[in-house]
Amino acid sequence: MDKATLIRRIHEERERLLQALEGLSPEEMTDVPVVGEWTVKDILAHLAVWQGRLITALFQLEQGRRPKDLELSPAEVDALNARIYREQKDRPLERVLADLHGTFQQLLRRLERFSDADLTQPGRFPGLAGPLWELIASETYEHDAEHRVDIERWRAARRGSPGG
């Protein structure tokens, strides 16, 4: 996938995620579980942290270094997600939203530094077997879409329930 297409897809899915949040009150975003014990705020914090990790990995790749924790086992991902939740759950909604928007802007700036060849050539970077765009997709628009669907399902269920 070329850079222009990748960036377009990242923008489009982030817009869909933001649309899924429209009309939610701060209380709905912070007090009501959506997936397990995670609230909307917890989901957004999760996305911001993972994008921050991607930004760090892109910086390391750009420097010719192999990012640590590039490929985690499912158990390692679960443990990391649990740690992220514990570390982020008490942060104010305003800070989480600022992080979500800030990491998004940082990511877009970081992506500008990569060429189409950087993004599409398998094996171009140490520790990365496939093309870089696949890693970026999994931590941006695919990840946003996964959790957007969670939020949309939760909202639809609330609309269908008494008092929702």
From TrEMBL:
Residues 10-129 form the DinB-like domain. Coiled coil: none annotated. Pfam families: DinB_2 (PF12867). InterPro entries: DinB-like, DinB/YfiT-like. This is DinB-like domain-containing protein.
